[in-house]
Amino acid sequence: MKQPFKLLGFAMAALVLAGTARAQTPVFYRSVNRVTWVVTNIDIARPAWEAMGLTDIQEFPNVALAVTYRGKPSTVHAWQVTGHLGNLTVDMIQPAEGQLNAYTHFLNKHGDGIFSIVHEVPSEAALKVEIARMQAKGVGVLQQVKMPRQGATFTYFDTEAEGKFSLGLVYRPGGMKAVDSGAIGRPAIVQHFGFVVRDLPPVSAYWQKLGFPGLTIVQLPARADTLYKGKQLLLPHYEASQRYDQFTYYWVAAPSMPANIYADYLIAHHQEGIQHIALAVPDLEKAIAAYDKLGHHVEQSSTWGTTGPGAGAHAYMDTEKLGGLSAELYHAN
């Protein structure tokens, strides 16, 4: 992978994008109802993430899903697990092999990972209006799925190629309850979704075209305390943020050399997308020790913000082989 941008051109693009007025989006996009997480082997991914905090698990074995994929209806058989990772509801899905659908296509192209971030629409009428709005902007429906056990309809838009994930909507008569982050014993631990891309300005322009916030892009200098697999990593790179009411979306564009986890992700998955979720922890060292006991170790770590006392710190754990996602343990001082 080449260095993402020449500095001058990138800086100019960043200033333009950061200064662009934020477009108004439908109110239901302000919060996330759940994510659709597609895996090749749910028997491996589920217990691993259960040990890392996935709770309230409901299992739906051998479900028959009524699917319309790129306009063609079919029945797709799958194994589904629904649970809560702190304040995030997760639908983990393993589609049966040899079927034509968006889940299988994602696995074949990308491997395990979060396929869609899903928002709840308040009514069937609102869903139809949003589908029409997106179509007017050149984005069609990739797949619609009727989930019989949940009594819900999921609509996935064809946004992955340029937006780096499939934007999802869910509608269920009476509401599609997500996790209550304020419930006793249910800490709000997911702080952000972390994306890895090769080039940030086109991603920002794409989401702005669809009426979403643009990316606020900054260049980050190398930090001397960054470690990759136990050795110092001097990695100047670019980061960007999209801020919503519930979660922040963080985007990273980094060079391929020196070796780093962002480049590793692009090599392993052959595609850009969601590389990590950030899990806020009160004590980083204790959290790392707990993951170590589960057999997961730090791949890359650093501080952020100020240097020295008072700096925030984070560590990416090597959980990527268990569902295609790295757990970033995140502590803000």
How do the strands and helices of this protein lay out in sequence?
Blueprint: H1 7-19, E1 34-38, H2 42-51, E2 54-69, E3 72-85, E4 88-95, H3 102-110, E5 113-120, H4 124-136, E6 141-147, E7 152-157, H5 160-163, E8 166-171, E9 190-196, H6 200-209, E10 216-220, E11 227-228, E12 231-232, E13 237-243, E14 248-253, H7 261-269, E15 273-280, H8 284-293, E16 298-304, E17 312-317, E18 326-331
Parallel strand pairs: 1-4, 5-8, 9-14, 15-18
Antiparallel strand pairs: 1-5, 2-3, 2-6, 3-4, 6-7, 7-8, 9-15, 10-13, 11-12, 11-16, 13-14, 16-17, 17-18
Keywords, separated by commas or semicolons:
8-stranded mixed barrel; 18 strands; 2,3-Dihydroxybiphenyl 1,2-Dioxygenase, domain 1; 333 residues; single chain; alpha+beta
Terminal Cα span: 34 Å
Residue fraction in strands = 35-45%
Based on secondary structure, the structural category is alpha+beta
The number of distinct helices, counting runs of at least 4 residues, comes to 8
Relative helix content: 10-25%
Shape: globular
> What's the SSE pattern?
HEHEEEHEHEEHEEHEEEEEHEHEEE
Provide the spatial order of strands within the biggest beta sheet: 10-13-14-9-15-18-17-16-11-12
Average residue pLDDT: 89
Strand segment count: 18
Regions with little confidence, pLDDT below 50 for 5+ residues:
1-23
* Name of the CATH superfamily of the largest domain: 2,3-Dihydroxybiphenyl 1,2-Dioxygenase, domain 1
What integer value in Å does the Rg equal?
Answer: 19 Å
- CATH architecture name of the largest domain: Roll
- From the 3D structure, determine the CATH topology of the largest domain: 2,3-Dihydroxybiphenyl 1,2-Dioxygenase, domain 1
Number of spatially distinct domains: 2
Largest sheet: 10 strands, mixed
What is the top-level CATH class of the largest domain? Alpha Beta
